[in-house]
């Protein structure tokens, strides 16, 4: 039993290894240790979802996961969405449809949306709104976020993508 | 080429934000940076007997601990900046850290500086404070009573201000055919931008320069105030608002924490960061609204309103916040007559100190409260005289030929076509079909209701002379510099610092359109007091109407100068030069032309300039508008009330807004959606709840309901366009239309649905239990 | 918000977890998905000396059918339960309830065992556990024992789970053939937790008389409860609209109602009845 713990994880395709306090939250690990500041903290109580990242491909709230719990796992943050070739379709859709204003919640919202599209490639308006239960946006009133997710779903379907691919998995 | 102004282009700021490359305050990391955490009072009102920081100081990793006494002489208390004249205002500044007394739960008592935020947080638990708990007072009405606890010894009855505007003899109401009286509570709400407040301060002991990055809607106002608070000249205090994650009014105010962080950075000569936790934000950042409104409306049986009298008892919280005195007085009072031609009106506002978080501007700031009372009163009046609420609105709306319209409250509405917006909304809605359906559904035990809000609001704060007359401690003009570089690309400098509005897109659209250059060649600089000469802030829907106007005028100056250079090079006179789509051409001779890029090079190289023309191609403008702008529109909300549980579902929401010239319809609609979500939020879910002892019960997002995606149907948004004559763009401002129009539209709709139960009034938020109780008591009466 | 310091150890087997719990002298706490515990740590409402992570014990995950029961490993996440074909086939009620827990992100992390062992009165599963006659397998120092869910929940965040024991699995009784079920939840608009959640399972015999009935309520008070008065009113009777109404009006009788700023005791009592009526109508009419 130790007050320090060694963690290693693959973040956006790159291996990372650190010795940290076991109490360190995953979101702080990403932001402070790895300088991946695209993931934000909005509420502290796992309502707002600004801190959402993919853990082994599934969206989770990184403010409610200890970094030690992600040991040995693979993480994708917003920084891992785009590739050198350009923006990820979800990013492109948020841009096209004006799915963001201040942009603070946006990384988490996009990643939560990826979670939905991986489960349901053709969601209805209502399904999208329900799937956004775990995110709070104060700026947009959600309508253009819903439009963006719809648009991303269509783009991905047309591209024949069955699973929303990440840039880092493409790199791998 | 299609005009860029009015075009729904994608935002220039998005690629950065979408890829995690934005830079919010918490993203800033400086070498040697230490972290601050504030110890906050658990009591709403208590005397501080002793603060013992010894144990905290000795915790490994702790750099320093400061109490209010430790900071004495190092910085001043943080003052308000709106000193309303003629109302016996008793401003109370916020102390850096409380020393003698705490006056609200969450007031900072001490601050820990440590190597990281984990240690800083640990150290808070080691600070011992002995309090002598005093009786607390939360309600503004109770606070004014003679036996109420006093927050400040020299403020009797906790009365911070008493403001009166207009007077109506009692006979007017006594003799009126119809009088409607209603008490309405516009509850306290918590602005809750998704990014909380934060600050990073860096002091250079060699030069004496201080750089403070902070979450600000108006960095120049922060510089003005903090320069005085910290005793640093404005020349050496640089405030930077980096990416700011929403504000909604909460980031206008100057608070103590940012100043304390800067003060300590100077003391310990290390960069200091503080980022507010959400739990702290609920207590430490300004709240909005909290006004008890007693409205009295006189009218005739055939639907004409003859007089309006309103008393506003406003809760200012424990100290006077930056704009705290202005929201329930000027911002509220001047707009109480709404979009209606009401010949007589009068307002009295009591501003009261209580043991609660100070209140200040929240999206709309006073106008939503004004709109709420008049739009609710209209419905009550319509009900009383048995007239359709739309009909009553039609009868009383300010007619087109009355503009510019001088209201009974002494302001001049710039331009409007109120009936047109109403017509358009009704056309989308199909009112008659709805009333049929409502009747049918009621037979089946389903309760539908419709609510209208034909609002107008006062935006685009300016002119500065008015600001002076109402005691606002600053100007309200804006400035811009438009600089064309030798290579032909353009940098635009603006004093209106954005925090989500998309200003970097809309302002660049204005410049690109006028100069005839690609949008990708124009970039905006904002939010840094060292880069931009001055600015009075992004609030009150003034960015486009005032800041955008300055950008437009500065661009005109660029063109004016470029035209002289073009005429010189083309060997003709200035009046012979036409400027279209980026080309200066000699009239009637298309072969003789220069592009703006060519002129930019000539101007900057300065090899051959006409006599009297200085080098470089740059225009600057300082724009002080001649009047406010008055956006307006009609919002219609349809709800269904679940008779069994009291839950309210929004079935339809129609918004027709007239914001004058729309620069970017996509962004404009985004503003409408967001504003409506917040307005509906206030109507149905949001509300700060305090215990009688002053404990904030709704202190996290687990208790305070932020609107979520599934709460809304798609919003049906449309615009009419009535240009404003007060600025060169004809723009009116859009940021606050939704929060202003939505609350009464929703509440009126619920009241309409509840009519079969005889319910006339309920206070927001219309939570299910409240609605259920109203239905039940209505039933009991039957 | 930041947790206070603790040490951390990962258990690789159930036995190891129990040994670590014993060795921690009351200072140890089990960490499952963390979605109940981490928020408490961040508020510093709990300050354990040691966290014993049971997240990587393979035997604690998975869904299997044993006789007329579906057994779910305690560390199986909501998401895994939701996508399990056995659950979809035999326990639609459980799937329906879990589908309403939190949000996608939370369902990816939160676990069945964590939910039950945490015993948040506003959680959705305690009621489901009562309605589906859940049996909890508890592994202690002296071996394993099976405990009925009914009687396990003692109060808010208090259960009958001994300090050095571990909930290893939860088994749910498969309702009889032809039974219908539903979980209706009145969610708090901010937290998403149940203000009132009503589970109902019912089956009719060939004469149209109620032969099986289970009604349980969570969220309304400090502990989830079986609404036996409702069940008694319906069992052995034809479920007419009037009888359902009468039965539903008893839905608050077997529990203690809570009260908070969002919903008073009286309103919760009312909601129990309204939701019970709607649930019963949905499956019986």
Automatic annotation (TrEMBL), chain A:
InterPro entries: 2Fe-2S-bd (IPR002888), 2Fe-2S-bd_dom_sf (IPR036884), 2Fe-2S_ferredoxin-like_sf (IPR036010), 2Fe-2S_ferredoxin-type (IPR001041), Beta-grasp_dom_sf (IPR012675), Diverse_Oxidoreductases (IPR051452). Gene3D superfamilies: 3.10.20.30, [2Fe-2S]-binding domain. Pathway: Alkaloid degradation; nicotine degradation. It comes from the Bacteria. One of its GO terms (molecular function) is oxidoreductase activity. Keywords: 2Fe-2S, Iron, Iron-sulfur, Metal-binding, Oxidoreductase. PROSITE patterns: 2FE2S_FER_2. Residues 5-81 form the 2Fe-2S ferredoxin-type domain. This is Carbon monoxide dehydrogenase. It comes from Brevibacillus panacihumi W25.
UniProtKB/TrEMBL annotation, chain B:
Residues 19-135 form the Aldehyde oxidase/xanthine dehydrogenase a/b hammerhead domain. The keyword Kinase does not apply. Transmembrane segments: none annotated. Keywords: Molybdenum, Oxidoreductase. Gene3D superfamilies: Aldehyde oxidase/xanthine dehydrogenase, a/b hammerhead, Aldehyde oxidase/xanthine dehydrogenase, molybdopterin binding domain. SUPFAM superfamilies: CO dehydrogenase molybdoprotein N-domain-like, Molybdenum cofactor-binding domain. It holds the Pfam family Ald_Xan_dh_C. Its cofactor is Mo-molybdopterin cytosine dinucleotide. InterPro entries: Ald_Oxase/Xan_DH_a/b, Ald_Oxase/Xan_DH_a/b_sf, Ald_Oxase/xanthine_DH-like, AldOxase/xan_DH_MoCoBD1, AldOxase/xan_DH_MoCoBD2, AldOxase/xan_DH_Mopterin-bd_sf. Coiled coil: none annotated. GO terms for molecular function: iron ion binding; oxidoreductase activity. This is Aldehyde dehydrogenase. It comes from Brevibacillus panacihumi W25.
Automatic annotation (TrEMBL), chain C:
Keywords: FAD, Flavoprotein, Oxidoreductase. The keyword Flavoprotein applies. Residues 1-177 form the FAD-binding PCMH-type domain. Gene3D superfamilies: 3.30.465.10, CO dehydrogenase flavoprotein, C-terminal domain, Uridine Diphospho-n-acetylenolpyruvylglucosamine Reductase, domain 2. One of its GO terms (molecular function) is oxidoreductase activity. InterPro entries: CO_DH_flav_C (IPR005107), CO_DH_flav_C_dom_sf (IPR036683), Diverse_Substr_Oxidored (IPR051312), FAD-bd_PCMH (IPR016166), FAD-bd_PCMH-like_sf (IPR036318), FAD-bd_PCMH_sub1 (IPR016167), FAD-bd_PCMH_sub2 (IPR016169), Mopterin_DH_FAD-bd (IPR002346). It holds the Pfam family CO_deh_flav_C. It comes from the Bacteria. This is Carbon-monoxide dehydrogenase.
């Amino acid at each position: 039993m130790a007050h320090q713990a060694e963690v290693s994880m693959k973040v956006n395709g790159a291996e990372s290894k650190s010795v940290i306090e076991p109490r360190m939250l995953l979101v702080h690990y990403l932001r402070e240790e790895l300088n991946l500041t695209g993931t934000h903290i909005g509420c502290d109580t796992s309502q707002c979802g600004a801190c959402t990242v993919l853990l082994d491909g599934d969206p989770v709230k990184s403010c409610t996961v200890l970094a030690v719990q992600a040991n040995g796992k693979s993480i994708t943050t917003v920084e891992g969405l785009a590739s050198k070739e350009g923006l990820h379709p979800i990013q492109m859709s948020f841009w096209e449809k004006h799915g963001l204003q201040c942009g603070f919640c946006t990384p988490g919202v996009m990643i939560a949306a990826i979670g939905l599209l991986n489960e349901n490639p053709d969601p209805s308006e209502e399904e999208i709104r329900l799937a956004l239960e775990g995110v709070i946006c104060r700026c947009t009133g959600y309508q253009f976020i819903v439009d963006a997710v719809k648009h991303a779903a269509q783009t991905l379907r047309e591209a024949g993508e069955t699973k929303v691919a990440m840039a880092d998995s493409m790199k791998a | 080429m299609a005009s860029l102004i009015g075009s729904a282009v994608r935002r220039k700021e998005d690629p950065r934000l979408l890829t995690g490359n934005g830079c919010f305050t918490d993203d800033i990391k400086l070498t040697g940076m230490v972290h601050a955490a504030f110890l906050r009072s658990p009591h709403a009102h208590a005397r501080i007997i002793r603060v013992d920081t010894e144990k905290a100081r000795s915790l490994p990793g702790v750099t320093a601990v400061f109490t209010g006494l430790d900071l004495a002489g190092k910085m001043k208390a943080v003052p308000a900046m709106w000193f309303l004249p003629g109302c016996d205002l008793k401003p109370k500044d916020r102390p850096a850290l409380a020393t003698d007394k705490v006056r609200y739960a969450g007031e900072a008592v001490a601050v820990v500086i440590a190597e990281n935020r984990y240690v800083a947080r640990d150290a808070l638990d080691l600070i011992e404070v002995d309090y002598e708990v005093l009786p607390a007072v939360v309600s503004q009405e109770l606070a004014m009573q003679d036996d109420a606890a006093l927050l400040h010894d020299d403020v009797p009855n906790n009365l911070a201000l008493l403001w009166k505007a207009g007077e109506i003899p009692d006979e007017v109401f006594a003799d009126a055919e119809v009088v409607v009286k209603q008490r309405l509570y516009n509850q306290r709400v918590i602005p809750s931008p998704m990014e909380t407040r934060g600050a990073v301060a860096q002091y250079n002991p060699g030069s004496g320069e201080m750089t403070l990055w902070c979450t600000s809607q108006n960095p120049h106002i922060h510089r003005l105030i903090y320069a005085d608070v910290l005793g640093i000249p404005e020349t050496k205090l640089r405030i930077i608002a980096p990416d700011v994650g929403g504000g909604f009014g909460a980031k206008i105010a100057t608070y103590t924490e940012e100043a304390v962080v800067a003060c300590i950075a100077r003391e310990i000569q290390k960069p200091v960061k503080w980022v507010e936790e959400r739990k702290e934000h609920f207590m430490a950042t300004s709240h909005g609204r909290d006004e008890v409104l007693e409205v009295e409306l006189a009218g005739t049986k055939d639907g004409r309103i003859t007089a309006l009298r309103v008393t506003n008892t406003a809760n200012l919280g424990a100290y006077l916040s930056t704009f705290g005195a202005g929201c329930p007085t000027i911002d509220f009072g001047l707009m109480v007559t709404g979009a209606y031609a009401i010949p007589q009106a009068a307002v009295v506002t009591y501003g009261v100190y209580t043991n609660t978080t100070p209140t200040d501007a929240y999206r709309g700031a006073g106008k939503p409260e004004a709109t709420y009372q008049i739009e609710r009163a209209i419905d009550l009046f319509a009900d009383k005289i048995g007239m359709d609420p739309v009909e009553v609105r039609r009868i009383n709306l300010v007619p087109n030929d009355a503009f510019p319209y001088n209201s009974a409250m002494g302001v001049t509405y710039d331009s409007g076509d109120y009936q047109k917006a109403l017509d358009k909304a009704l056309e989308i809605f199909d009112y008659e079909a709805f009333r049929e359906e409502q009747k049918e559904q009621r037979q089946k035990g389903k309760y539908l209701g419709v609510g209208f809000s034909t609002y107008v609001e006062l935006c685009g704060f300016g002119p500065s002379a008015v600001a002076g007359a109402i005691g606002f401690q600053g100007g309200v003009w804006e400035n811009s510099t438009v600089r064309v570089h030798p290579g032909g690309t353009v940098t635009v400098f603006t004093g209106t610092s954005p925090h989500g509005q998309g200003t970097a897109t809309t302002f660049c659209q204005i410049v690109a359109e006028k100069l005839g250059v690609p949008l990708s060649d124009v970039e905006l600089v904002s939010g840094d007091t060292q880069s931009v000469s001055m600015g009075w802030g992004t609030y009150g829907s003034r960015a486009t109407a005032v800041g955008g106007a300055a950008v437009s005028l500065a661009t005109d100056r660029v063109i004016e100068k470029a035209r002289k250079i073009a005429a010189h090079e083309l060997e003709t006179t200035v009046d012979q030069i036409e400027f279209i789509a980026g080309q200066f051409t000699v009239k009637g001779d298309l072969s003789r032309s220069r592009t703006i890029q060519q002129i930019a090079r000539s101007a900057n190289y300065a090899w051959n300039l006409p006599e009297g023309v200085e080098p470089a191609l740059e225009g600057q403008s300082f724009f002080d508008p001649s009047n406010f702008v008055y956006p307006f529109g009609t919002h219609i909300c349809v709800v269904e009330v679940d008779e069994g549980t009291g839950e309210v579902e929004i079935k339809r929401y129609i918004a027709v807004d007239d914001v004058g010239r729309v620069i970017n319809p996509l962004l404009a609609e985004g503003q409408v959606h967001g504003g409506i979500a917040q307005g509906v939020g206030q109507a149905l879910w949001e509300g700060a709840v305090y215990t009688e002892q002053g404990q904030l019960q709704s202190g996290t997002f687990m208790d305070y309901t932020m609107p979520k995606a599934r709460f809304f149907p798609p919003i049906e948004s449309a615009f009419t366009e009535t240009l404003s004559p007060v600025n060169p763009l004809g723009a009116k401002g859009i940021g606050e239309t939704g929060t202003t129009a939505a609350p009464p539209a929703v509440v009126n709709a619920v009241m309409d649905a509840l009519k079969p139960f005889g319910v006339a009034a309920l206070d927001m938020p219309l939570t299910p239990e409240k609605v259920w109780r109203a239905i039940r008591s209505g039933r009991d009466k039957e | 918000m930041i947790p206070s310091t603790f040490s951390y150890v990962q258990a690789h087997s159930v036995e190891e977890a129990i040994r670590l719990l014993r060795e921690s002298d009351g200072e140890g706490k089990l960490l499952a998905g963390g979605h109940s515990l981490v928020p408490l740590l961040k508020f510093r409402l709990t300050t354990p000396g040691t966290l014993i992570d049971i997240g990587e014990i393979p035997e604690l995950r998975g869904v299997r059918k044993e006789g007329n029961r579906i057994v779910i490993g305690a560390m199986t996440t909501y998401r895994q339960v939701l996508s399990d074909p056995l659950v979809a086939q035999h326990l639609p009620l459980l799937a329906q309830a879990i589908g309403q827990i939190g949000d996608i992100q939370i369902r990816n992390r939160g676990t069945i065992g964590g939910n039950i062992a945490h015993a948040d009165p506003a959680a959705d599963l305690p009621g489901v556990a009562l309605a589906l006659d859940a049996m909890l397998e508890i592994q202690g120092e002296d071996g394993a024992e099976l405990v009925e869910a009914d009687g396990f929940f003692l109060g808010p965040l208090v259960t009958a789970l001994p300090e050095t024991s571990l909930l290893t699995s939860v088994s749910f009784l498969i309702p009889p053939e032809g039974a219908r079920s539903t979980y209706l939840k009145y969610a708090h608009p901010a937290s998403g937790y149940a203000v009132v959640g009503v589970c109902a399972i019912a089956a009719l015999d060939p004469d149209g008389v109620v032969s099986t009935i289970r009604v349980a309520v969570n969220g309304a008070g400090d502990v989830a409860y079986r609404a036996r008065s409702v069940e008694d009113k319906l069992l052995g009777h034809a479920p007419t609209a009037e009888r359902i109404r009468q039965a539903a009006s008893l839905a608050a009788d077997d529990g203690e109602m809570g009260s908070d700023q969002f919903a008073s005791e009286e309103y919760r009592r009312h909601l129990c009845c309204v939701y019970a009526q709607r649930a019963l109508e949905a499956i019986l009419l």
